[in-house]
């Protein structure tokens, strides 16, 4: 029972941006995927959730072949993809954003409890929130749907590090409820700090896979993955 | 695409597509040979066709003329225009007025029709100008609303005023003394006259599409930003397309009136304009031969229905179905045909054309040094999107002759910086000066003309042109053609004859860089030029870039998050983070700065 | 008092323009389509329902037939666009509705003939008169419908979970899909609803305003002008725009010497609005 990618290849235009990537995301655990910009991390997440179609390989979630399902079916089957760039619905209030996915009032309250600071903004249109608050809304909205697996893409994008730092323990908390999290990050240190597994992708291929500690303690390996 | 591309594709079938061929436009005689062939064919038909089919053939030519004009707007320039027959009506009405209500026929005799036709077409293109001006700044759909409004309003007005020949019950005299509609011999001569006009207009459209105007229309259809960045005004490109289209529509209107020597508003009603638009989408009327084919469909389908006693309304329904099919598949018969030809050429061993960048001998130039002259000066640049500050007080300098790198993690504001420098974000504060010229209040195409150009992250090279046509368009009116060849060869790009459709995306971006260098700006901004290049191409590209300031006199500002390229070509770096300048200075110093590493990787200390 | 009289007549047409303007705004915001077939599906549905009059059905059944037919045609069109042009630009999506407009006009000439339709207005006569100025029942009903639909749609969009989902799709379609929202299904719902409303409007005004298939174009232009006044985003401004166009047309009919100009009123409103709206050059992010 897990989200399994086997030998996945993704193409954009003519060339492959992801070549033969295999990895596994287990329920209740955080797998952190790091790598320099342009390594193909976002494309990989998009292939899992169906924004783009994978060109090769298999993607299964708890035994279900995801590649046969539409975006919406993958989502209703329990896979939630939080895209990069804080995809709020600007005209919706915080409450409406959360109600969009929460099936019960309990789910709604549980999601809101992740970020008590959102309560005083509950009836504001999300477009009027700060970047950090918007990111909280997006994360809480995905959690309210009670997903089995969460794909989180570049939560840190355009956020001050101190804001991002606030999100990390929450992501840990979410995973501890049994959700499998695939966390894609450019800010490697913070993201690896909460990870159970680490994967480094460079130029569309897996260049490291294993313990996050191994990566964190080897500064040279990490630097190499980033700055070439 | 037009005939130009076919000829180019044919000539590049030679094995060495990379070497610049002496011919620039394919054989010069090709269009004239086609024109001559069509003339001979038309003359033959004029004598061979039975009377009834001669009338049909004339209608085909007139419909083709309407589609030819419409194709420029809908196909080449990618807009929705629903009043092509309104232009025809205005052209025909003015011609009708001059021929029946003024002394023009007495003054000019046989040539009066031609003069009146040209005056009518000019009136139609003026209407095009009036209609187009308010609509063109907004996107395509508003043009559709406005043109449909024109068609409907003119329809009702024409019903009330009717055509001038009906005021005095007088027939319009055909040109050069050709007898009127009742005389069958006259119809043969009139068919030849119409064929002659169609051939002249088709030749005109052919050369226009290959001219700067035509290239501008294609660029606009593909990307408005890309067009403005080459120094061409988007508004004038769209307006010229619209006016040429209306002019040709006006001529078509005169030919329609001349065919029956009297006019009825029914001919020009809105429904027929809609039919023409939908048909032009279905066949791809921007291709001259497809406009002709569309003309045949427009006349022949109703004719066949008539033969079988099927109601004529089925014709429009057939157009609608063909149009929906074309629109939903985002293609047209003409494009499908071209694609089949291309696939056939591929099968015969003509594969997509790739760059030869990697196999070039390295230049081996050192990282260029900056001179003392400040070329670009940015002071306190600030951009806000609502409450979000995207750039705050960015100040930097770039010296003549250098390659400056602007780096920073994703979301640092690099793209916003480029957009505000090149005029796409007019609401910034602070100042930008290039070589002493203030750029802040200028429109993007004016900034490009002032000597600051840019390339784009996304592909902005339209696949509907040849490499040469694109490079000449980017280069501007005074571009040196030898320089284009030189720069293309310098970057290992395919020769000017190669159709861009057969060039892969990575190579297209190299062509974009080369063409912009050949345009000779003072400063060129390269927005992530290395994305999508392989490692070997990367190294070769860096080697070539280093030689650019010295060899072509163009300074470069490279925006990258990939540090490989930056390290090998830049002497100085500016680092952006959260919209602010984090560090600036010599490359080695900046990259050794721990703050910069932190910006790229996040705060190490805060977690551990 | 001639002017006042023609103003009232004009305003009564204005109610119809406003009602269609509101539908166009709803379509543009919720499905990203400027629907050139908006009037056409209604006219077609209404004409088809007329064929059932000889069966002696009650009027409300006739109108229901019109609404169901129009809803079905509209939903089919929406399905074509959602299936093949799901992520295309507004222009590309709207172009399809131009083709279907052509098809519907021709089909209706084919099926119902070119002669004016025996399509009696639902309500006849004045609601009240003062002096020699009569305010018609149809005019008041159309205005009430325009305002009513604008208000109901506002309420629906802000107060119900269905409305929240519709707004989410309007804001960001892909993000909504990734949250498991049935984007296609909800868009088809909007297509069907606006189609049914179009047929209702046409059934109400009857052959006074929609005598032949030509009205598929003739009514669309002032409706588009109304929607443009609302910048295709604001239903209330669209209502005002419809009334403005109607009032201008009405007043101009009071001056028989310039009667030609009345046909150009909607276009003039469109052009002036575009000019005002486009004082500054805008660069589309995507292009």
Automatic annotation (TrEMBL), chain A:
It comes from the Bacteria. Transmembrane segments: none annotated. Pfam families: ABC_tran. Keywords: Amino-acid transport, ATP-binding, Nucleotide-binding, Transport. GO terms for molecular function: ATP binding. Residues 3-228 form the ABC transporter domain. Belongs to the ABC transporter superfamily. This is ATP-binding cassette domain-containing protein. It comes from Demequina zhanjiangensis.
From TrEMBL, chain B:
The keyword Lipid metabolism does not apply. It is found in: Cell membrane. InterPro entries: AAA+_ATPase (IPR003593), ABC_AA/LPS_Transport (IPR051120), ABC_transp_permease (IPR001851), ABC_transporter-like_ATP-bd (IPR003439), LivM-like (IPR043428), P-loop_NTPase (IPR027417). CDD domains: TM_PBP1_LivM_like. Keywords: ATP-binding, Cell membrane, Membrane, Nucleotide-binding, Transmembrane, Transmembrane helix, Transport. Residues 1-22 are annotated as: Disordered. PANTHER family: ABC TRANSPORTER ATP-BINDING PROTEIN (PTHR45772:SF4), CONSERVED COMPONENT OF ABC TRANSPORTER FOR NATURAL AMINO ACIDS-RELATED (PTHR45772). This is ATP-binding cassette domain-containing protein.
Automatic annotation (TrEMBL), chain C:
It comes from the Bacteria. The chain crosses the membrane at residues 6-26, 33-53, 59-82, 94-113, 133-157, 216-239, 251-276. Keywords: Amino-acid transport, Cell membrane, Membrane, Transmembrane, Transmembrane helix, Transport. It is found in: Cell membrane. It is a multi-pass membrane protein. Belongs to the binding-protein-dependent transport system permease family. LivHM subfamily. This is Branched-chain amino acid ABC transporter permease.
